[in-house]
Amino acid sequence: MLAALFQSSLIRLVPVGMIALAIQSAVLVELQVAGVIIQLVLALAAAAGAAGGSERGAIAGFTLGMMFDLFQGTPLGSTAIAFTLAGVVSGLLALIVAEPQWWLAAIFVALGAAVGEAMVPVVRLFVSQSNPWPPDIATVIPVVSISAALLSPLLVPIARWCLRVRGSEWTAPVDEPL
Fold first, then answer.
1. Which long-range contacts link 136-139 to residues 24+ away (Cβ below 8 Å)?
2. How many Å apart are CA 39 and CA 33, to the nearest integer?
């Protein structure tokens, strides 16, 4: 059982998530774009989906969302559901192409981050949080998704490393006698 933990992707994902959470809460709070905090942890969850598919994206999104909830003091699991959806959506979009190029992965990460950010107020509405809808939601979602797309060339390889995703290897076709 302990060996399975050491071989899982959580051994790499949790420390990387802690670093991303620290950067988001210490640095990105001060560097706001149009009054919106760049959601680095959400972008990492969406990048995990684009790098490893919907199942691994869901696991990474849930893990990163639970870490975010524990750090911020929000109701446990409320952000985790939204981050899970971000990983699933970007992972499902990544099914279109076997090895997406960087610009296509950036689109997948942006769409996953947009869905994840749009679901945060919806989930918080269900947990009876007072005033879950930010007044500037029309600004928040585009800023978060564009920033996630711009960060994706950095985050997708990091997510690929965290999830232990190997690229496909090309092999020459076998010549068969006619």
1. 136/35, 136/36, 139/34, 139/35, 139/36
2. 11
The model's pLDDT over 127-140, given as tens digits with 9 standing for 90+, comes to: 877 777 878 889 99
pTM, two decimal places: 0.89
> How far apart are the C-alpha atoms of 97 and 101, rounded to whole Å?
9
In the chain the first and final C-alpha atoms are separated, in Å, by: 51
Number of Cβ within 10 Å of residue 108's Cβ equals 29
* Domains of the chain and CATH, by start: 9-162 (1.10.1760)
Distance CA 93, CA 104 (A): 10
- What is the DSSP secondary structure assignment for residue 8, as one 8-state letter? S
Length of the chain: 178
Q: Is 16 helix (H, G, I), strand (E, B) or coil?
A: helix
d(CA 14, CA 33): 27
SS3 category, 172: coil
Burial of 162 (0-12, 13-18, 19+ CB in 10 A): buried
Sequence letter at residue 166: R
pLDDT of residue 135: 84
- Cα distance between residue 20 and residue 68, in whole Å: 10
Q: What CA–CA distance (Å, rounded) separates 26 from 21?
A: 8
